[in-house]
Specification:
476 residues, alpha+beta, Rossmann fold, Dna Ligase, domain 1, D-amino Acid Aminotransferase, Chain A, domain 1, 3 domains, six-stranded mixed sheet, globular
């Protein structure tokens, strides 16, 4: 039976009114109180950010599903349940029990089960990529072949190897340096580049052994692709199946050590600029990056029947060969969405409704004209710290007084004791320029204390932000 959604739900005919505030904090006109029952699925920092955005409306009743307890998300929820996020049947049953007006699915592991397809077929408005669309993230080979076969200028030269000895012979026979990648999802720490994380050809050969022997990423094949040099940026966008609307561009930093050195990680922090571009990014290039995402989604719909309603993130690099698309995530970026939610002035709930009902064109999505800097606090041993509990003391009130937004990406064990997942907490600050936002972020981070905690102090500093300005010549 197809369920007809009541969207949104009016609480009663009683003339209850209140001033609802938008994300910018300005009162809107009075209106009848509307109760929106929203289910949010996820458990990391990006999910906490979305929960904060949704709960800025007092009429939103938020329910959450996660596989471990993120206490900051729980505090924003009417109710929560711990569940296997790979179990689409359990998610479906919980959703039907509660009669939600809207479901937002964040984790890639849940999206690839096809849960959004199932819920849509039952008439439930849902935000999140379909099973067919999720392959854009879950299989890097699929994305690269799509870009290559459709002659995208942003395509990267690559080779795929199903046999480790063939892959190793390829490296031995070529003097060039390459990026070596598992084909599947590794949460940002599976890519290693020769000359950076792999200091010698022997290290590269050993890494190929490691990827094949442990089936890293979940696929029995490995990608070896050209090593690119340039400035990276992330473009997140909303898609409702018809329109693709880009968010402010963000520069994400994945290297563990200051100076952009060391191990590749899921992310140490990020910044955005006051004009919603970046110091090295023109509006022409921004529009090109947005158009690339839209064209990819059009191809997916035409060739694979995949209508895309959700968040999408493109990871780009500006090189001397032009702009290249490195990866696609079928969800918000982390840390990138932590920059965006504090900037967002348009009601996030309305945006998600518009995505679910294919009405993004009816909205003008607006943001504050402020720069942002986000920095993650990570545990010893990151990005592979294991499950060792970490003691963290946080003065949440002082961080809020300083204008910081605190996001949680770890799991609660007991008071001040957390399990990394694999990061701990992030702070985002806003200011009139990137450098001031970075200084404000440092002031906030003084109020997160714990033994051997690590964060990158250089994110948003003038020295690091201008490090790659030599690439200006390739930007149009």
């Amino acid at each position: 039976m197809i369920l007809t959604p009541v969207f949104p739900r009016i609480l009663s005919v009683a003339k209850q009114k209140q001033n609802l505030k938008n994300i910018g904090g300005k009162p809107q006109t009075e209106r009848v109180v509307i109760e929106m029952k929203i289910l949010l699925i996820g458990r990391w920092g990006k999910t906490h950010a979305l929960a904060m955005g949704l709960k800025r409306r007092s009429d939103v009743k938020l329910y959450t599903l996660m596989d471990r307890k993120n206490g900051s998300i729980v505090e924003l929820s009417e109710d929560y349940r711990l569940i296997d996020l790979n179990d689409s049947r359990a998610i479906e049953n919980y959703t039907l029990e509660r009669d939600f007006d809207l479901v937002i699915v964040v984790p890639e592991m849940s999206l690839k089960t096809g849960i959004t397809d199932t819920l849509s077929e039952k008439g439930i408005p849902v935000v999140g990529a379909s099973r067919a669309s999720s392959i854009l993230e879950s299989d890097k080979v699929f994305l690269r072949k799509l870009l290559q076969s459709h002659q995208f200028e942003e395509a990267v030269d690559f080779s795929v190897f199903h046999d480790k000895e063939e892959a190793k012979d390829y490296l031995r026979q070529n003097d060039r340096e390459y990026a070596i990648k598992p084909a599947g999802v590794t949460e940002g720490d599976g890519v290693k580049v020769m000359g950076l994380q792999l200091e010698s050809r022997n290290e590269a050969l050993s890494y190929i052994d490691h990827l094949f022997n442990n089936t890293i990423g979940g696929y029995p094949y490995v990608i070896i692709e050209e090593k690119l040099k340039g400035e990276e940026f992330s473009l997140q966008a909303f898609s409702d199946g018809k329109s693709v609307v880009g968010m402010p561009a963000v520069r994400d930093y994945k290297m563990l050590e200051e100076g952009d050195k060391g191990t590749n990680t899921p992310g140490m922090g990020s910044y955005s600029d006051v004009n919603h571009m970046l110091p090295f990014l023109s509006r022409t290039t921004f529009r090109q990056a947005t158009a690339t995402l839209k064209r990819i989604l059009q191809i997916m719909e035409r060739e694979h029947g995949a209508i895309y309603k959700g968040f999408i993130t493109g990871q780009y690099m500006l090189t001397d060969k032009g702009m290249k698309l490195l990866e696609i995530n079928v969800r918000p970026g982390d840390a990138e969405i932590l920059n965006i939610i504090p900037l967002l002035e348009t009601d996030l709930t309305e945006i998600c409704q518009a995505i679910a009902t294919s009405k993004l064109d009816d909205l003008k999505i607006q943001y504050k004209n402020r720069a942002t800097v986000c920095k993650y606090v990570v545990p010893p041993g990151f990005p592979t710290p294991g499950k060792k509990p970490v003691s963290v003391e946080i003065d949440r009130e002082r961080i809020a007084e300083l204008g910081g937004y605190l996001f949680q990406s770890c799991f609660d064990l007991e008071d001040d004791l957390y399990e990394p997942s694999p990061r701990l907490f992030a702070v985002t600050t806003l200011a009139s320029d990137i450098y001031t936002a970075s200084q404000k972020c440092e002031e906030c981070l003084k109020h997160i204390r714990g033994q051997e905690l690590v964060h990158r102090r250089d994110i948003g500093t003038k020295e690091l932000t201008e490090k790659y300005y030599g690439n200006q010549k390739v930007i149009s």
